[in-house]
């Protein structure tokens, strides 16, 4: 079977359409959600608490939380008014976080917060200190 130029363009267009339509949005594409370190700076400047959403790409309930909870108008407005919101892909080892004078990959940082299931939320004060953990965060990821 020989493909002509129009067939090749059609297939290429179709592949690109599918790739862009069905690819998951990254944290930077989700309106109002920041990466961790820019969020620390913004929280200090605006004197707001930080909400960290630890998620994974494969987690069904993470997607449900995004679709049903975080995108609900009242919830989205309260998050915007009261928090600096962070989306952190717990399994993305290519991303790093600088915290407490140390650098962590996302998986190391996630483990340092004791996260073992997803989705998981952490709350930090405007200085970046945990407000929902009874103990200081272990600076050595296990």
Annotate the secondary structure layout.
Elements: H1 5-22, E1 33-34, H2 36-46, E2 49-55, H3 60-70, H4 73-82, E3 83-89, E4 96-99, E5 102-105, H5 106-112, E6 120-124
Parallel strand pairs: 1-3, 2-3
Antiparallel strand pairs: 2-6, 4-5
Structural class: alpha/beta
Radius of gyration: 19 Å
Measured between the Cα atoms of the first and last residue, the distance is 56 Å
Average pLDDT, rounded to a whole number, is 82
Strand order of the largest sheet: 1-3-2-6
Q: What spatial form do the alpha-carbon principal axes imply?
A: globular
Number of helices: 5
In helices, the fraction of residues equals 40-55%
Order of helices and strands: HEHEHHEEEHE
Find the count of extended strands (DSSP E, 2+ residues): 6
Strand content: 15-25%
Largest sheet: 4 strands, mixed
Low-confidence stretches: 6-29
Question: Could you give a quick summary of the protein structure above?
Answer:
The chain is 40% helix and 20% strand.
What does this structure look like?
This protein has 142 residues and is an alpha/beta fold. It is 40% helix and 20% strand. It is built from five helices and six strands, in the order αβαβααβββαβ. It has helices spanning 5-22, 36-46, 60-70, 73-82, 106-112; strands spanning 33-34, 49-55, 83-89, 96-99, 102-105, 120-124. The strands form two sheets. It has a four-stranded mixed sheet with strand order 1-3-2-6. Strands 4-5 form a two-stranded antiparallel ribbon. A hairpin with a 2-residue loop joins strand 4 (96-99) and strand 5. It is globular and about 50 Å long. The chain starts with a helix and ends in an 18-residue tail after the last strand.
């Amino acid at each position: 079977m020989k493909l002509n130029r129009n067939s090749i363009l059609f297939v290429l267009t179709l592949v690109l359409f599918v790739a862009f339509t069905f690819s998951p949005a990254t944290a930077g594409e989700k309106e109002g959600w920041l990466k961790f370190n820019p969020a620390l700076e913004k929280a200090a400047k605006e004197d707001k608490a930080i909400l960290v959403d630890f998620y994974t790409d494969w987690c069904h309930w993470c997607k449900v939380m995004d679709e049903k909870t975080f995108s609900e108008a009242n919830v989205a407005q309260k998050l915007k008014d009261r928090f600096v919101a962070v989306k952190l892909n717990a399994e993305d080892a290519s991303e790093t976080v600088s915290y407490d004078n140390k650098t962590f990959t996302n998986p190391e940082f996630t483990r340092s917060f004791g996260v073992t299931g997803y989705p998981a939320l952490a709350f930090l004060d405007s200085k970046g200190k945990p407000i929902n953990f009874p103990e200081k965060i272990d600076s050595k990821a296990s």
